[in-house]
Amino acid sequence: METRRWWRGLRSALTDMPMERKLLIVFLGVISLPLTFIGYLSYSNYTHSIERTTVSYSTNLQEAMMERIDDYIEDMMRISSIPAYQAEIKHNLIRSNQYYGQRMKANSTSVTDSVPEDFNQLLSIQRGIQSSVKFINNIKRGANVVYIFDEFGNGYFSTESGAVRLDLEKSYRQWKAQAEQSGGEALLFGTETYTSNLNSVRSAFTVVRKILDEASLQPIGLIAVDADIRVIEDQIIDLDKLTHGKSFIIDKQGGVIYDSDKSQLSKRIDTPIIRQASGKSGSFYQTVDGQKQLVIYTTSPDTDWKLFILIPERELNKDSIRIRNATLAATFVTIGVALLISILLSFALTKPLRKMMRLMRTVQEGNFKVQFPVKHRDEIGQLGHQFNRMIVRIDQLIQDIYEMETKKNEAEMHALQNQINPHFMYNTLETIRMVAELNDDDAAADMLSVFGKLLRYSIGDVREKTTVKAELEHVRNYIEMLNYRYPNRFDLQMHADPAFHNVLTLKLLLQPIVENAIYHGLDDRKARMRIAIIVEHTERFLLIRVVDNGLGMTAETRERLNRSFSGMEVNGEKRGGIGLKNVCERIKLHYGHSYGMEALEGLDGGTEIVLRLPAPQSELDTPFIHGGKTND
């Protein structure tokens, strides 16, 4: 309700606004709306273009980086397969297994002291394997450490290539457990953080493979190739500089291989970003630490590692924001200039109209001797020319109407002078009735009395209001008058609640309907014709039903009559329907088109005419309408 009232007030204010203000608003709208729309469209297109370009460029960088990482891991896997082709490594691993196997067996059978170690044999085995490890380390730079283990978990490695894990035994057990399930293929382990023998914290991802004996195809050892994450770090740093964002890599179990902050290294994470990145590659927006960021990801087809790039939206839209600000500044300057021009144009265009309004006020005061000065041939000039012609024509019409009204008043005065006074007619009828009573002619006296009542009621202004009781009484007098002419031929029945007697209605509504029923429905085969008048009401209408048991109407006649009541043209209309149509038109003219009449088939084969008038409660609120005007 408040919104509707506010909208009506706004519409009224705009409608009543002076013309120069309307023109000013139109000018500003024509200029500012396109500029704003174009600026917004340019900003949106540029922003989307930057986003598409960034996504495409970053995806290409990601794919190139993942290819390099995949190549590096592929090299590590090739390195892990070298022992399978190095007879010296396998030979020394077999010797190591035999040596520690014999020692374990000897120690288990000796009940006194343990068997002393054969240092010469151990040194020979260690030198043989470590020389091969040095060779492997020199094949691929970046491999932090290569470890070779026999079946008893004894590790052989070279410390020249880098720092060695202090918890090597724990790492070996983990690698051994996973490698047992494999058939000799290389296994890739995610990043692990460990403490080196140099007391420094390192992070590395590892490729592990079982070493099999060619003859028996039985495992004789294990090789583990550690790759320091610095081989990834350099590429990630370059990627972050290009994208102005942050990156991280996770494996398919959610373990962090690398992240720019190095705060999540070797941890397992499950964030909304990872859950939303369900495909192989793509991009989406996500809020991270209160900042909206563009997330771009791609997946390695070899390792199933996912590389994520997070670019803050403010960094992404930095250039487009500058363009937006420049566009807004240009728009405001343009609107300011347009405002000044619009003010000048609006006042220039409305100046002739204001002058014409002043002339109209002069005409409204009765002075028709004004003229609008026409200086140009544009629309204002043509309007001024038509205004001048209209003033001359109005002045001439006023003179003509004045002369016509003078002649009309003179004619009405002569007609009133020649009109017979209705009181003269009433008094004459009363004199005749008194003479009939003096001569003992009661029937003539009664007929004259009834006829006087009919005449007194019917002669007068039909536009005046009466009551339902008076209308019913007028019909009763009419039927009584007919029964004098046709003794006991008509039986009038009235069913009206006394509560409706004082309801106001139009004059002479019922008598024309009863007269039409008698004139067209009288059946000579019946001794008496019954006419019933029933008064009832609904929520909206006061219904008056006039029902007779006469000859009735055909369906075609009722349809033609109802179409006539509804205001539709009826070709070949008979004379009998004119009186009913006039009654219906009077009802519609006084009360509106929601009211009127309808012809129905009577229950006894006769005709029923239904009048729809305003309900009693709405009668008090409904003004008396005549000819489309309120008659107070």
TrEMBL record:
TM region positions: 21-43, 328-350
EC supergroup of this enzyme: transferase
Primary residence: membrane
Pfam families registered for this protein in UniProt: dCache_1, HAMP, HATPase_c, His_kinase
Catalytic activities: ATP + protein L-histidine = ADP + protein N-phospho-L-histidine
Superkingdom of the organism of origin: Bacteria
CDD domains associated with the record: HAMP (cd06225), PDC2_MCP_like (cd12912)
Keywords: ATP-binding, Cell membrane, Kinase, Membrane, Nucleotide-binding, Phosphoprotein, Transferase, Transmembrane, Transmembrane helix, Two-component regulatory system
GO cellular component: a single term: plasma membrane
Domain HAMP: 347-399
The EC number(s) this enzyme carries: 2.7.13.3
Domain Histidine kinase span(s) in chain numbering: 420-617
Compartments reported by the entry: Cell membrane
UniProt-recorded Gene Ontology molecular function terms: ATP binding; phosphorelay sensor kinase activity
Topology within the bilayer: Multi-pass membrane protein
Cross-referenced PANTHER family: SENSOR HISTIDINE KINASE YPDA
Listed name of the protein: histidine kinase
Organism listed in the record: Paenibacillus curdlanolyticus YK9
